[in-house]
């Protein structure tokens, strides 16, 4: 009784708990300083005492140090283990059951602000009502004890099954995590090998392929970043899943070891959360989606493809044109084949350029023609098709070579960088004799690539991108496309399908 009286003297009548920073007011009553501040009306004027209603001024508050020390000592003595059946906050018997919080409380708790608006019932009635509503147990003491024990056994059995189920789920999740780590390691190795393969293949090509290499590596890096992000998300998801399972396992273990009173406090919550916890995770094998497919040479050359227009006013009189100037044929001299030339021009709609154009300068001795294009910088590519398998020559030249009289002199020495080809093979036009190189299958279409900045003119098979020959034509500021046709030979400049 003395302990209860002491506790009553050390309890604030507002919060019903031990004094916290107690102060005395003019009427002599003591309260927590924080409780008084919360009960004051706005304005800061005199306030009534919560117990006797006598007015008191805020300035009259006086700290009660003795009461504070006594309250602190009593609170410390009660910080040890709470005896069974007592309130852990007030050390009072648990006589009531809070319907709102679903837990036992003492009489002091009922008067506190936390529970003032809650519905209360005597703990014996609440316990009996809970048993009748959920388990149908009658009031007979012996039957009550047996059924309580039976119920506890069933609950422990369910908790054990739940614990086993959670352990199996965690084992599965950890296995998935190991597979994810192994999968990531293999993926990194694949990514490394793929990067080496890219670098090796790109090293085999010419200088401009360095730009293509960077584009492919950037695409691969983007895929790598996206895959890393997705892998990190999967790892985070598995970690969260494992952490949740660990918490549930610990909670189920603690629940199974708790007392009967604690076991009956909302027992279905942990079981429901355990049943709802699943390990739905679909393991996705990481793959490298960016394939190592280096574009064929002809495809890369077409990026620089330009439209070539023939300058008919530079053509030799034997050359005739059709198809809007893209098709040209060496018709030989007018005295040799007058009837053939006239019939061909009539049936095919060809026109002889010297009859319709004003010419300033043209080829008078060799069956040649220039392109209208004038190249002073950049990279340019065009294709030429041999229609008759007779010998023709294509390339680039200076603008001042139209007075040349001997086809054997066509070479870089005079300002012509070209190759000639026919069914017999191809050969670069140089100042010294070169035997034709046989091409299998026979060379049908040739691609001309001019890198003006590097001073190179290269020739490729337009069918498969095979490199044929490269000239160096440095220090030439203006270059034009060059065409030469042997007797009766013809060529066509295919339309541009891509590139510039």
UniProtKB/TrEMBL annotation:
Kindly indicate whether the keyword Methyltransferase belongs to this entry.
Answer: no
Domain of life from the UniProt record? Eukaryota
Domain B box-type, chain residue ranges per copy: 82-123
CDD domains from the entry?
Answer: Bbox2_TRIM4-like, SPRY_PRY_TRIM4
* B30.2/SPRY domain sequence ranges: 287-500
Which segments constitute the RING-type domain? 12-53
The UniProt entry, under Gene3D superfamilies, shows:
2.60.120.920, Classic Zinc Finger (3.30.160.60), Zinc/RING finger domain, C3HC4 (zinc finger) (3.30.40.10)
Q: Which InterPro entries match?
A: B30.2/SPRY, B30.2/SPRY_sf, Butyrophylin_SPRY, ConA-like_dom_sf, PRY/SPRY_TRIM4, SPRY_dom, TRIM/RBCC, Znf_B-box
Q: Which UniProt keywords apply?
A: Metal-binding, Zinc, Zinc-finger
Which SUPFAM superfamilies does this UniProt record tie to the protein? B-box zinc-binding domain, Concanavalin A-like lectins/glucanases, RING/U-box
- Name of the protein: E3 ubiquitin-protein ligase TRIM4 isoform X2
């Amino acid at each position: 009784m003395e302990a209860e009286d002491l506790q009553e003297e050390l309890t604030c009548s507002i919060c019903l708990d031990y004094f916290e920073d107690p102060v005395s007011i003019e009427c002599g009553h003591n309260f927590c300083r924080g409780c008084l501040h919360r009960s004051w009306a706005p304005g800061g004027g005199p306030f009534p005492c919560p117990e006797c209603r006598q007015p008191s001024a805020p300035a009259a508050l006086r700290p009660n140090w003795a009461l504070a020390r006594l309250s602190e000592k009593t609170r410390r003595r009660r910080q040890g283990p709470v005896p069974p059946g007592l309130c852990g906050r007030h050390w009072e018997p648990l006589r009531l059951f809070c319907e709102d919080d679903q837990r036992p409380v003492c009489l002091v708790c009922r008067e506190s602000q936390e529970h003032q608006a809650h519905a209360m019932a005597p703990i014996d009635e609440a316990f009996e009502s809970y048993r009748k509503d959920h388990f149908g147990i009658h009031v007979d003491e012996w039957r009550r004890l047996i059924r309580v024990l039976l119920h506890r056994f069933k609950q422990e059995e369910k908790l054990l099954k739940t614990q086993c189920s959670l352990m199996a789920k965690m084992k599965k999740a950890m296995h998935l995590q190991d597979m994810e780590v192994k999968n990531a390691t293999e993926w990194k190795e694949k990514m490394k090998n793929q990067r080496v393969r890219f670098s090796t293949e790109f090293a085999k090509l010419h200088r401009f392929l360095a730009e293509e290499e960077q584009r492919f590596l950037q695409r691969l890096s983007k895929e790598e970043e996206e895959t890393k992000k997705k892998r990190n998300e999967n790892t985070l998801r598995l970690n969260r899943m494992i952490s949740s399972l660990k918490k549930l396992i610990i909670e189920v273990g603690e629940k199974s070891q708790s007392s009967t009173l604690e076991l009956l406090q909302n027992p279905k919550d942990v079981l429901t959360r355990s049943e709802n916890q699943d390990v739905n995770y679909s393991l996705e094998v990481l793959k490298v989606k960016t394939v190592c497919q280096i574009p064929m040479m002809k495809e890369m050359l077409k990026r620089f493809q330009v439209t070539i227009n023939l300058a008919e006013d530079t053509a030799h009189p034997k050359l005739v044109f059709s198809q809007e100037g893209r098709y040209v044929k060496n018709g030989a001299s007018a005295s040799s084949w007058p009837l053939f030339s006239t019939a061909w021009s009539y049936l095919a709609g060809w026109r002889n350029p010297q009859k319709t154009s004003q010419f300033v300068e043209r080829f008078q001795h060799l069956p040649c023609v220039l392109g209208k294009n004038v190249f002073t910088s950049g990279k340019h590519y065009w294709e030429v098709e041999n229609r008759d398998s007779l010998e023709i020559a294509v390339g680039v030249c200076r603008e001042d070579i139209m007075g040349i009289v001997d086809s054997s002199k066509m070479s870089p020495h005079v300002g012509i960088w070209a190759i000639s080809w026919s069914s017999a093979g191809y050969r670069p036009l140089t100042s010294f004799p070169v035997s034709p190189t046989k091409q299998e299958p026979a060379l049908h279409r040739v691609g001309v690539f001019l890198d003006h900045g590097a001073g190179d003119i290269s020739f490729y098979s337009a069918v498969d991108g095979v490199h044929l020959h490269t000239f160096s034509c440095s220090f030439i500021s203006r270059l034009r496309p060059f065409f030469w046709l042997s007797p009766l030979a013809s060529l066509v400049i295919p339309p541009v399908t891509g590139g510039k």
